[in-house]
Design goal:
Length: 354
């Protein structure tokens, strides 16, 4: 009679590795910060089989009407909790009601549909918002980086729902030809995918160096490997396809204009989406937009300048009377009061940037 197989030690080893994981510990802290701020999770199934995971504000959980509903869309290297945890309490204190989804193939959101375009992401978010109990009829949208692409399509496809827009380091005006022209730190989509979906410590170190104006000096390899294992190994194929759908064949001439008032926020030292793309977007949108440059910040504005970014978002959304560069004297005066004393520099796109 053959001897029974020896019990596997993989499962206990995996449990101990998860218990000692600094990345998972931080993930739990971010989740607790959402819950302690009063937000509650919800999963919204859609007719096409997609499921969008949401964090709902306290007002939505009790069925009350929020004062200023705002939809917060995370970037490519994050989930809802990792991107927005530090912003929740200040936004809530300012009278904003944050709705925070995981985009498709991030966090707990997924879809069986083959469409990988940001337009499909926007359609899923809009459908999920409409399906929520006591969902707001109109809301502001804030999109960071990749989330800004989704926010832009959301504003174009659902103008009745999107009241105003904040785009943070969102290179929606990029063209595929910009890669070969040397505007970016990568030369093609494949290199961009290997950088934004790092599977090796050296790739993550390079990404951090490009993302931050002042990258952290101390990055132990054990922490980097743990971060990659937890944050960068799920849905790699699908996320790579998202990048190809985002960049492949992209032309500025195909980008529609949107009618909503739009605040564009950019890091002065952004090396992922260079500042030229912010200026290009300002020219594309014209008088309905305003470009704000944050000094001493790279692409990771939310990490390097969270207080300034949070203040800009609060001021722009909480006071709908603020319309940048319109002809309303009171609105312009109000905007100037709000930004006085900050380390921000407003840019006229008709003048040189540097």
């Amino acid at each position: 009679m053959p001897a029974p197989p020896a019990p596997s030690t993989a499962a206990p080893r995996r449990r101990w590795r998860n218990r000692l994981s600094p990345t998972l510990a931080r993930d739990r802290c971010y989740t607790r910060s959402f819950r302690s701020a009063g937000l509650r999770p919800a999963s919204v199934p859609l007719p096409d089989g997609a499921v969008v995971h949401f964090w709902l504000p306290p007002a939505a959980a009790t069925g009350a009407k929020p004062l200023h509903p705002v939809l917060l869309l995370h970037g490519f290297g994050a989930t809802a909790t990792w991107q927005w945890a530090p912003f929740l309490r200040p936004l809530l204190a300012a009278g904003l009601a944050p709705y925070v989804p995981d985009l498709i193939f991030f966090g707990a959101s997924a879809s069986p549909v083959a469409d990988r375009s940001p337009a499909y992401q926007a359609a899923c978010v809009a459908a999920a918002m409409a399906a929520l109990p006591s969902s707001p009829q109109r809301y502001a949208v804030v999109g960071v980086s990749y989330g800004g692409f989704v926010a832009y399509h959301l504003a174009h496809a659902f103008p009745a729902a999107v009241e105003r827009l904040v785009l943070v380091a969102a290179g929606v005006c990029l063209e595929e030809t910009d890669l070969a022209a040397g505007l970016f730190a990568v030369e093609d989509i494949a290199e961009a995918a290997s950088l934004l979906l790092p599977q090796r410590p050296e790739d993550l170190r390079r990404l951090v160096g490009l993302t931050f104006c002042r990258p952290p000096q101390f990055m132990p390899s054990c922490f980097i490997r743990d971060y990659i294992r937890v944050m960068c190994t799920e849905n790699v194929k699908e996320k790579t396809e998202l990048l190809y759908a985002l960049i492949n064949g992209r032309k500025l001439s195909d980008l529609p204009k949107i009618s909503q008032q739009t605040l564009i926020i950019w890091g002065e030292q952004d090396r992922v989406f260079p500042l030229e793309l912010g200026s290009r977007l300002k020219r594309h949108l014209g008088d309905t937009s305003e470009l704000i440059i944050v000094k001493n910040a790279g692409h990771a504005i939310n990490r390097e300048k969270p207080a300034e970014l949070c203040r800009l978002i609060k001021n722009y959304i909480a006071d709908p009377s603020v319309k940048y560069r319109d002809n309303h004297k009171g609105s312009w005066k109000n905007a100037m009061k709000r930004f006085v004393g900050s380390s921000l520099r407003k840019v006229d796109s008709s003048r040189p940037l540097l």
